[in-house]
Design brief:
By secondary structure, the chain is of the alpha/beta class. It has helices spanning 17-21, 34-42, 44-47, 61-72, 95-98, 118-133, 145-155, and strands at 8-12, 54-57, 77-78, 139-143, 173-179, 182-190. Helix 2 crosses helix 4 (61-72) and helix 6 (118-133) packs across helix 7.
Length: 214
C-alpha cells in the first residue's frame, strides 16, 4: 500500500449475534460471538508491529474487546464520537422488519425516529478526522460499520449518504491515507496487509481540517 502521508487504520469489531443476523446495533451492549473473537484475534499479528500516534475506540464493549484481542487493550483512548449511528426506535431491528412500514428505508436515506440523522453522524466523523489530522503519524480506530462508512465518505470529501457505497465486514481492516494532496481509500475489508511505503513528505500539516463537501 503506497501512500503520500499518514495512514488511518479502520477496524470494525468482530462478529456479534446481531451483526451476524443483520440487526441494527448502536447503544446495545453485545458480546462477540466465538467467531467474532477469532476474527479480532486474527488482527493481532498485522497490528503488532505498527506504531500509532493515536489509538481510539468506541466505548461499546464489542469494539473494546476487539481492540483487546487485536493487541491494543489498555492502549486505546475511548472517544464517544466513534459510537455507532444511533438507530433510535429501530435498534435491534433488521432492514426487512423496518421496511414493513417504510418499503424503501435505508439508514443512509431514511429517517431514524428517536435516533440520529446522517448529518449528525457526519458531524461526529468530522471531529474524528480533525483529531487524526492533528497528529503527525499513523492512527488506528476501533469502531462499527455505519460510523466507519460515513467516516470514509467524509474523508473522501463526500456527503454522509455516500457511505452506502462502502460495505465493511466484521473483524476486518480498512486504511485511509493520501495520494499526493488527495485523501484516498487505500484498502477495505482486509484481514492482513503489509505497511506500505510513503512517497515524499506528508501532504498535510498538523491541525489541518477536513474540507467540507458542497
Amino acid at each position: 500500500m503506497r501512500s503520500s502521508g499518514p495512514q488511518i487504520v479502520l477496524v470494525r469489531h468482530g462478529e456479534t449475534e446481531w451483526s451476524r443476523d443483520g440487526r441494527h446495533t448502536s447503544f446495545s451492549e453485545l458480546l462477540l460471538t466465538a467467531d467474532g473473537e477469532k476474527e479480532a484475534k486474527s488482527l493481532e499479528e498485522c497490528l503488532r508491529h505498527w506504531t500509532f500516534d493515536l489509538a481510539l475506540s468506541s466505548p461499546r464493549i464489542r469494539a473494546l474487546r476487539t481492540a483487546e484481542l487485536a493487541g491494543w487493550g489498555g492502549r486505546v483512548e475511548i472517544d464517544p464520537d466513534l459510537s455507532e449511528w444511533n438507530y433510535g426506535q429501530y435498534e435491534g431491528q433488521t432492514t426487512q422488519e423496518i421496511r414493513v412500514a417504510d418499503s424503501k428505508w435505508t439508514v443512509f436515506r431514511g429517517a431514524t425516529p428517536g435516533g440520529e440523522s446522517g448529518a449528525q453522524v457526519a458531524t461526529r466523523c468530522d471531529r474524528i478526522i480533525r483529531r487524526v489530522r492533528s497528529v503527525a503519524g499513523d492512527c488506528v480506530l476501533f469502531a462499527h460499520s455505519h460510523i466507519l462508512r460515513v467516516l470514509i465518505a467524509r474523508w473522501l470529501e463526500l456527503p454522509p449518504e455516500d457511505g452506502r457505497h462502502f460495505v465493511i465486514q466484521t473483524g476486518t481492516l480498512g486504511v485511509l491515507s493520501y495520494e499526493h494532496e488527495s485523501p484516498v481509500l487505500l484498502s477495505l475489508n482486509a484481514t492482513a496487509f503489509r505497511q506500505g511505503k510513503r512517497e515524499g513528505k506528508a501532504v498535510r500539516k498538523k491541525g489541518d481540517f477536513l474540507k467540507k463537501s458542497p
